[in-house]
Amino acid sequence: MRGVFIKPVSGVEGEIRVPGDKSISHRAALLGGMAHGDTHISNFLLGQDCLSTLRCLKQLGVPSEREGTEVWIHGKGMEAWTEPTDVLDAGNSGTTSRLMLGVLAGSPFTVTMTGDASLRSRPMRRVTDPLKLMGAQIMGRLGGNLFPLTMSGGQLQGQTFRTTVASAQVKSAIILAGLRASGVTTVEEPALSRDHTERMLRGFGVEVLSEKTAVSVHGGGLLTGQDVSVPGDISSAAFFLVLGSLAGSGEIILPNVGVNPTRTGILDALITMGADIELIDVLEICGEPRATLRVRPAKLRGIEIGGDMIPRLIDEIPILAVAACLAEGETVIRDAAELRVKESDRISTVVEGLNALGAKVEELPDGLRIHGQPSLRGGQASSLGDHRLAMAWAIAGMLSKEGVSVEDMAAADVSYPDFMAVIKKVAQ
Ligand SMILES: O=C(O)C1=C[C@@H](OP(=O)(O)O)[C@@H](O)[C@H](O)C1
Ligand SMILES: C=C(OP(=O)(O)O)C(=O)O
């Protein structure tokens, strides 16, 4: 049998401190690099994606130091960034690429950016088109849609954009470019995507206007270095919310999980399905709410989700699909075509992976139809290099009858380097 074998469990028990939020860690490093003065980040995610952001910053002349999960960024303002002497490699990270392109659009030098095979197939025109309209020059395969891309930044002009997808990476890239443009830059999205950039910019001293799904900034805003405490990542906690709900016995406590309302779709979905999840001690630090989550076993039933809910749980759909396989009745997920342009085509890879484990899942153009069953057989599945799939298949293995052998489990390092050790610790 190939891969890492994950055996079935009869229950789970324990407290898990999930690592720092990936989206917030990227932004803390990037904004720290743009700011004047030192930024201290605690609970920084040491996943491969956020390390890619630190590495690119270093190549741009922004030094940082790291001790465990604490990071210090020595920002000297955007003017101090320098032209890199080599290609910037964003690895597997869509967030590093798109946010960095936004920041660099206003820099008076030339940068070439690339990434791994997955990132080189992901669409970039969603950020390069608006950045070109603002004044950046960008060249790349398929009219500037695919990495590697070369960008020469410079004088930017503020604009108003109405995006067709609710994407925080697109919104953030435009807003970060807007800080260096003349006039006002506005982004209006079809639904609200995660708002960490807006919240953190305010913390760094920049005025950001938000009204429903529209965000505006004035060019010229200056950032001042800050202390940023990163909450635990709800996208990583999601694996344990599903495990704790379906493992049969025991309780899992997850302290300090970020519960920003633009990210809590997974809580809403699981609770609607019948999950027993409690939020304890909600408090806000550095503009981001966080809470302790307690999850206990429950019987789950199918659910229908779509519309504005999708951006609030987009990265959690693979693990939500595992939960739906073991829920009573049918689950339908729609309006989620964005899944097709993530680290893998997460509609077809989830369908193929779960059906190989004995589930009944149908592919829809923009989502999934999942027929719940009382049990899941298990078998073999590959992460295909996609971290969310690696962890979803491991949880499926723990909840299955025969276990699951996960090929390329190491992909989990992108967002959760300790994942294997943690699942061993809670398994009963
Ligand atoms: O801005 C961010 O930090 C992210 C936004 C989302 O992507 P999109 O902006 O493409 O929806 C999400 O899937 C990704 O994991 C992180
Ligand atoms: C889609 C994801 O990340 P990114 O777009 O940053 O690669 C993810 O973490 O699931």
UniProtKB/TrEMBL annotation:
Keyword Thylakoid: no
Domain of life: Bacteria
Keyword terms: Amino-acid biosynthesis, Aromatic amino acid biosynthesis, Cytoplasm, Transferase
InterPro entries tied to this protein: Enolpyruvate_Tfrase_dom, Enolpyruvate_Tfrase_sf, EPSP_synthase, EPSP_synthase_CS, RNA3'P_cycl/enolpyr_Trfase_a/b
Enzyme Commission code(s) on record: 2.5.1.19
CDD domains recorded: EPSP_synthase
Record domain Enolpyruvate transferase: where: 7-421
Annotated pathway: Metabolic intermediate biosynthesis; chorismate biosynthesis; chorismate from D-erythrose 4-phosphate and phosphoenolpyruvate: step 6/7
Family indicated by similarity: Belongs to the EPSP synthase family.
PANTHER family associated with the record: AROM/DEHYDROQUINATE SYNTHASE, PENTAFUNCTIONAL AROM POLYPEPTIDE
Name recorded for this polypeptide: 3-phosphoshikimate 1-carboxyvinyltransferase
Originating organism: Desulfosporosinus fructosivorans
